[in-house]
Design a protein that fits this description.
Blueprint: E1 26-32, E2 39-45, E3 56-57, H1 63-72, H2 77-81, H3 96-111, H4 126-135, E4 142-146, E5 152-156
Antiparallel strand pairs: 1-2, 2-3, 4-5
Length: 165
């Protein structure tokens, strides 16, 4: 026997792997249970015309369930999820990720001829102008911080404390 493998030693066939083009027979649907506002996921089998339901429900209502409930009860669901300014719990410090996102977004706006909110002293780089607006707390942006339950807090850029990175 030889240790090297030639082309005759190995053969691969793919006959057992056949891809058939079939229409899907099961369709995934998301429904809201109107009694308790939970999201119910179900699979409907469409082969024989009968519907087989498999319900999977979570223990806590999802944010979309809260939105769906708000739409049913004629409330504004967006205002229900917003945490009031005096009840905010997150830190008042701007993170480096928020800073990067804000500066990048504002620099893009300035490069697309958005009005500049500070006095220019020879700056032409949009990122430098955005940094100057951030230092002078004149950025017209709001940071939205989401909580795990779907609620959110809004912080304006002049409210957030900044560190030097």
């Amino acid at each position: 026997m030889s240790d090297d493998f030639g082309e005759d030693d190995v053969s691969v066939t793919f006959e057992h792997l056949k891809i058939e083009d079939e229409e899907p027979t099961e369709f995934f649907k998301t429904e809201v249970d109107h009694e308790d506002g939970r999201i119910v996921n179900s699979i409907e089998n469409d082969n024989d015309g009968h519907a087989d339901h498999v319900a999977v429900s979570s223990d806590s209502p999802a944010p979309t369930a809260a939105v769906a409930n708000g739409l049913q009860s004629n409330k504004d669901p967006i205002k229900d999820l917003k945490i009031p300014k005096d009840e905010r719990t997150t830190t008042p410090y701007m993170t480096k990720f928020e800073r990067a996102r804000i500066l990048g977004t504002r620099a893009m706006q300035i490069s697309m001829n958005a009005p500049v909110l500070v006095d220019l002293e020879g700056e032409t780089d949009p990122l430098e102008i955005a940094l100057k607006e951030l230092r002078e707390k004149k950025l017209p942006m709001i940071v939205r911080r989401y909580h795990a339950d779907g609620c959110y807090e809004d912080w304006s850029c002049d409210e957030l404390r900044q560190q030097d990175w």
